[in-house]
Amino acid sequence: MKPTNLFNTDDRAVSPVIGVILMVAITVILAAVIGTFVLGLGDSLGDSQPTASIGIEAGSETGEVVISHNGGDALTGSELDVVDGSGNSLSGSPPGDLSVGGSVTVSSEKATETTVRVIHTPSETILAENTVDLS
C-alpha cells in the first residue's frame, strides 16, 4: 500500500452533515420554546378550567334559575359563582356541588328577562351563559 493512501479516507463529509443536522435541531427547539412563551401558552398551565356542559333555565317559581349539569367534569360549588347580567351574584350562589345529571336552584331578585352566567372563579372562565325570562 502506498504511504499517500493511508491518510486518504472518505470520512471528511460526515462531520459537516452532522453539524448541519444539529444546528437545525437546535433552531427548531429554540423556536418552540420562544413561541410558547410569546403566545402565552406557558401561563395557562397553572389553573385549568373544567370542561362541563351546563344548562341554565328558568325555574317553576318567579325569579328561580335552575342550573343543570349535562356532562363533563364534576364541579365544586365553592369554585362557582352565578351572576346576572349586571354582575350581581344570585342568591344561593355559590351553589352546591354539581355532578353529571344533577341540578341546583338559585334565585334572583329580578322578575324580568336577564342574562345568567355560571363562572368558574379560580380560572375566571364563563362555563355557561343564557338569557332567561324569570317572570
TrEMBL record:
This is Type IV pilin N-terminal domain-containing protein. Residues 12-83 form the Archaeal Type IV pilin N-terminal domain. Residues 84-103 have a biased composition (Low complexity). Keywords: Membrane, Transmembrane, Transmembrane helix. The chain crosses the membrane at residues 20-41. The keyword Electron transport does not apply. NCBIfam families: arch_flag_Nterm.
